[in-house]
Amino acid sequence: MAIYFFKKKNQSNFIYILLICLFSFFINYHYSNLGVFPIDTFLHYDSAHKILNKEYPVRDYWIVSGFIVDFLQAIFFKALGTNWKSYILHSSIINIIISLLTFYFFKSINLSNLISFFYSICFSVVGYTISGTPFVDLHATYFCLIAFYFTVIAIKKPKKIFIWSIIIFFYLLAFFSKQVPTTYLAILNTIIFSIYFILNKKFRVIQIIFFSFLFYILLFFSLLEFLQIDYIDFYAQYIDYPREFGSMRANDTNFSKLKFFNNYKFIILPFCLLSFLKVRKLIIEKEKIFSNDFLIFLIYSSLITSLLLHQILTKNQIFIYFLIPITFAYIHSELNIKKSRQKNFFLILILLINLFITLKYHIRYNENRKFHELANTNISEAQNANILDKSFNNLRWKTPFFNGTAIEEINLLREVREIINKKQTEIIIITHYLFLDSITTKKIYSLNRTYTLDGASVPTNKSKFFKYYKLYIIKNLIKKNIEEIYFIKKENINQKIIKNYIDNICYSIDENEIFFIYKLDLNCLVLSTKNI
Cα torsion for 353, 356, 357, 359, to the nearest 10°? Predict the structure, then answer.
């Protein structure tokens, strides 16, 4: 009888796991095909393709984040070819992994398989799916969330101290994907755990954390050495400049309490209820503030705080609605242990509220593709992007800002490709279409991963890194023997992205129906480096 029950329980687990895997994969895979916002949709496309051609971020083009994401995507391209399917396979697999780990987290807080399954499905709907394609903020955030899940295991199973090494690994993956929110979370957790470890005399764990961190950092710098990436360039691009830019954004933030509450009310209100239940339990049951149960809550609180702060300061599209099903599941767990006549009513109410909110954001972010600015775009007018290139098969091409139809934009890009393929000189294209290098036979070099003048891509003339960046790109232009820089007219990218950094005596400007063309004088560029 016991053997039968064990087999039946495992079979039930397997079915739930299989369903979560299938659902989280295909929902992300499906919605990632709907529409395009080039600068975000293809953020890691060409940069990953370039890695396969031994062009590396930091060394060969300027970045401010996304180092690990580029290399992860390069692995998918290496294994499956540089194409759209292997691109969205990456993000779809991440959605599977994080949804499964979320399922096991729910089980760890004493929710049944069925209830854990329900909340996990809701999570996968508002998880990676809101972007669909690999995106730096989401990778960093989900690596932080994975670290949190392993932290829960480490707290509940203190004898398995090796888990702390895994936790450090995922925090570093998160940081080298994007510096924030990882930095905020690391600061808060360091404070919490320093007190916890000292009070409980867990000095062995401190040693594990320290030596794990040291090992991973040495391994990372060995990677930089192998790739011939200069340490100073890495520090300037990935650590020092983003810190300066982040400070500028923090100072420029026009914070509105009403707008903040309106945007995040379905995260804030459930979290307030959860906090009330936890503090009430602390007071009534005389639970210690550093008991396992309350410590996990403190770590979860630091995660929510860090993500909210990150969203406020970055001013990006909101992507943290996945916290809603996690928090409701946490509340469900707390109420589930209460003994009262109204318990079932409240549990059903929580399930229904969570379902309603999930559907609300599903329609807004998945059906309407709000994250990629496609909410006001008619996706039914989209064209299959295999017309542009067979590597983009199944991608429904429709962008929000192109002044014309989808087929007109595709035809323009086909013409761009034909012209570029005929070029004999070394060139750069300043563009938001961050996939052109992968679909042309002609090699296209890059100065940066992205080209914006708000400080998020490159240092502006107000930055202390302005001269550093100017010298960096001029040296790269000389090193790669770049003779022409192209702007696609229809994109209307501000040409100050070049004019601000290259002396006007070192180039002349030509144009045709499609391009503005900057013809560079390399000898002049060489001389200009002496004056920087």
Answer: 160
Kindly state the tokens that stand for 515.
Answer: 């391009």
The conformation of residue 56, written as its DSSP 8-state character, comes to -
- The answer to whether 108 and 114 are in contact (CB under 8 A) is no
Domain of residue 277: give its range: 15-245+272-372
- Tell me the C-alpha distance between 186 and 188, whole Å: 6
Closest CA to 124 of 138, 112, 107: 138
Distance CA(25)–CA(41), nearest Å, equals 18
Give yes or no: residues 353 and 414 share one domain: no
**What is the rounded distance in angstroms from the CA atom of residue 74 to the CA atom of residue 127?**
23
Task: Clarify whether residues 437 and 488 are in a common domain.
Answer: yes
In this prediction, residues 85-114 reach a mean pLDDT of 96
> Could you give the strand order of the β-sheet that contains 426-430, starting from the edge strand earlier in sequence?
444-445, 426-430, 482-488, 515-520, 507-511
Q: Any idea what the Cα angle at residue 87 is, between residues 84 and 91, rounded to 5°?
A: 135
DSSP string, 379-392: GGG-EEGGGT-GGG
Cis? peptide before 242, omega within 30° of 0: no
pLDDT tens per residue, range 51-97: 999 999 999 999 999 999 999 999 999 999 999 999 999 999 999 99
Does residue 475 form part of some domain? yes
Cβ–Cβ < 8 Å for 115, 126: no
Judge if 196 and 286 occupy the same domain: yes
DSSP 8-state secondary structure symbol assigned to residue 436: H
DSSP annotation string for 469-501: HHHHHHHHHHHTTEEEEEEEGGG---THHHHTT
**Do residue 341 and residue 448 come from a single domain?**
no
Contact criterion met (CB below 8 Å) for 429 and 488: yes
pLDDT tens for each residue of 301-337: 999 999 999 998 887 789 999 999 999 999 999 887 6
Task: Give how far the C-alpha of residue 23 lies from the chain's centroid of Cα atoms, to the nearest Å.
Answer: 21
DSSP state letter for 460: -
Beta pairing class for 444-445 and 426-430: parallel
Packing angle of the helix pair 182-199, 203-226 (nearest 10 deg): 150
Contact 61, 480 (CB under 8 A): no
Does residue 410 lie within any of the structural domains?
A: yes
Of 372, 390, 410, which residue sits at a domain end?
A: 372
Same domain, 367 and 417: no
Instruction: Burial-class residue 471 by CB neighbours within 10 Å (0-12, 13-18, 19+).
Output: middle
Whether residues 136 and 205 share a domain: the answer is yes
Q: Mean pLDDT throughout 169-183?
A: 96
State the DSSP string of 109-175: TT--HHHHHHHHHHHHHTTGGGT-S--HHHHHHHHHHHHHHHHHHHHH-TT-TTHHHHHHHHHHHHH
Q: Are strands 396-397 and 383-384 parallel, antiparallel or unpaired?
A: antiparallel
